[in-house]
C-alpha cells in the first residue's frame, strides 16, 4: 500500500461540545528491496551465419516491483561468454552481433548477462542467454501473386489496409521483410514486417502494378501485386440489383466464387459484349449466414439497365447461376416486414464511402464501401 489518508477529529468537553477535523496523508516511501526480474528467466536465441554486423538477436525483457525511481532504466552488462567481443548489448536490452558469425567456427555461445536497477543501493539480477549459430538461408521465399479490387465513390477514397501478401520460407528461422519500390510510396505503403498493403487516400480510377519484393536477408523475390480501382457513378446506385447468397462468408465468396460467378453473371445479363458489369459491394446480412452482392450493368453507350430488366434476366438464368453458388433471393427492393404492396414500396440506397470493408484472401482482395437500404411505404 503506497499511502493512507486519515481524517482525525478533535472534540472539546464543553456544552455543547465543539469539534474540528483535519486530514492527514501518510505516504509510504519505497526502498529498493526488489531486484530486476528477467522474463523468461533464461533465454535461447538463434542467429544465421553471415548476417551483417549489428543484426538484432534478442530483446531482453526486465521488470521491477519497486517504484519507478528504484526500477528502470536498467544497466545491462555481459559478464561472461563474450571474451572475444562477438556481441554488444545496448541500453534498451537488445543483444546484437558484433562480428559476422561462421557456423564452422562455433555453433553455440552461452552468455551470462547482468541487469542493474536505478535504486540506492542498486539491486542486480542475472540471466543466461544461449545463442546458436545456424547455417545461412538456403531456400528462397515463395509468395503468392495478389490481385486487389477497390470500389469507391468518385474522388472519395479514404485509404486504409487493402490486402496482405502471403509469403513463406522453408528455412525455419528466416525472418521475412517486405519492401515497395520507392517511387510508388506516394500512393501505397507496405508494412515491412507483415506484408500488409496500405493505400493512401484519393486514389484515381485505373490499374496500378506495384513493385513489391520479399526478402529473407539473403534472397530477394519479386511479387506481382495488381490493384484495380473502380470509381462508382451516382447513377449506378439508382439501377442496382441485389443477389443474396446462402451460407457463404465474404472471404469465401471473394476467394472461391467471385471470378466464376462474375463470368456466369455476365453471360446471363449482358445483352452485348461491350456492356460492363459492376460489382458495387458485398456485405453480410446481419444476424444470418447470408451475403448480399450489389451490382449494376452499364450499357456500352453509357446508360444503365433498369433493375426490372436485370431481374427478369436473372430469374431466367437462376439455374445456371446456382451451378456456381447457392442463391437465396434476387432483390430489387427489400420491403419485407412493411405493410404495403410491393408496387407501393420505395427504396433508396446510400453508400458510406468512408466505411470500407476489406475481404482479403491469399490471392485476391476486395475492398468496397458499406451500403444501406432505406425502404418506405408510398400507399
TrEMBL record:
Its main location: membrane. The keyword Membrane applies. One of its GO terms (molecular function) is calcium ion binding. The keyword Zinc does not apply. Residues 4-38, 39-143, 154-245 form the Cadherin domain. InterPro entries: Cadherin-domain_protein, Cadherin-like_dom, Cadherin-like_sf, Cadherin_CS. One of its GO terms (cellular component) is plasma membrane. Keywords: Calcium, Cell adhesion, Membrane, Repeat, Transmembrane, Transmembrane helix. It is found in: Membrane. GO terms for biological process: homophilic cell adhesion via plasma membrane adhesion molecules. This is FAT3 protein. It comes from Penelope pileata.
Amino acid at each position: 500500500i503506497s499511502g493512507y489518508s486519515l481524517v482525525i477529529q478533535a472534540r472539546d468537553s464543553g456544552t455543547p461540545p465543539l469539534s474540528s477535523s483535519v486530514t492527514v496523508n501518510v505516504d509510504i516511501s519505497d526502498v529498493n528491496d526488489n531486484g530486476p526480474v528477467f522474463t523468461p528467466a533464461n533465454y535461447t536465441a538463434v542467429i544465421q551465419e553471415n548476417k551483417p554486423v549489428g543484426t538484432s538477436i534478442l530483446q531482453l525483457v526486465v521488470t521491477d516491483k519497486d517504484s519507478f525511481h528504484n526500477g528502470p532504466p536498467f544497466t545491462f552488462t555481459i559478464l561472461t561468454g563474450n571474451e572475444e567481443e562477438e556481441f554488444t548489448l545496448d541500453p534498451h536490452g537488445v543483444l546484437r552481433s558484433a562480428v559476422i558469425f561462421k557456423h564452422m567456427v562455433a555453433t553455440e555461445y552461452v552468455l551470462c548477462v547482468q541487469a542493474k536497477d536505478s535504486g540506492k543501493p542498486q539491486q542486480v539480477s542475472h540471466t543466461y542467454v544461449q545463442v546458436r549459430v545456424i547455417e545461412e538461408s538456403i531456400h528462397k521465399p515463395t509468395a503468392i501473386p495478389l490481385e486487389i479490387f477497390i470500389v469507391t465513390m468518385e474522388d472519395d477514397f479514404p485509404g486504409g489496409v487493402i490486402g496482405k501478401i502471403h509469403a513463406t520460407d522453408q528455412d525455419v528461422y528466416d525472418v521475412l521483410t517486405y519492401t515497395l519500390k520507392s517511387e510508388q510510396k506516394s500512393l501505397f505503403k507496405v508494412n515491412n514486417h507483415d506484408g500488409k498493403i496500405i493505400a493512401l487516400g484519393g486514389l484515381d480510377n485505373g490499374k496500378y502494378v506495384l513493385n513489391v519484393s520479399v526478402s529473407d536477408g539473403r534472397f530477394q523475390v519479386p511479387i506481382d501485386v495488381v490493384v484495380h480501382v473502380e470509381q462508382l457513378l451516382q447513377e449506378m446506385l439508382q439501377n442496382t440489383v441485389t443477389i443474396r447468397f446462402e451460407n457463404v462468408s465474404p472471404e469465401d465468396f471473394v476467394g472461391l466464387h467471385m471470378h466464376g460467378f462474375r463470368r456466369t453473371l455476365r453471360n446471363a445479363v449482358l445483352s452485348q459484349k461491350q456492356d460492363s458489369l459492376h460489382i458495387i459491394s458485398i456485405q453480410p446480412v446481419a444476424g444470418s449466414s447470408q451475403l448480399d452482392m450489389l451490382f449494376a450493368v452499364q450499357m456500352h453507350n453509357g446508360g444503365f439497365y433498369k433493375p426490372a430488366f436485370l431481374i427478369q434476366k436473372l430469374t431466367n438464368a437462376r439455374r445456371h447461376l446456382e451451378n456456381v453458388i447457392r442463391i437465396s433471393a434476387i432483390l430489387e427492393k427489400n420491403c419485407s416486414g412493411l405493410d404495403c404492396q410491393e408496387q407501393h414500396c420505395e427504396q433508396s440506397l446510400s453508400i458510406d464511402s468512408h466505411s470500407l470493408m476489406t475481404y482479403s484472401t491469399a490471392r485476391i482482395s476486395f475492398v468496397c464501401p458499406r451500403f444501406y437500404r432505406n425502404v418506405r411505404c408510398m400507399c
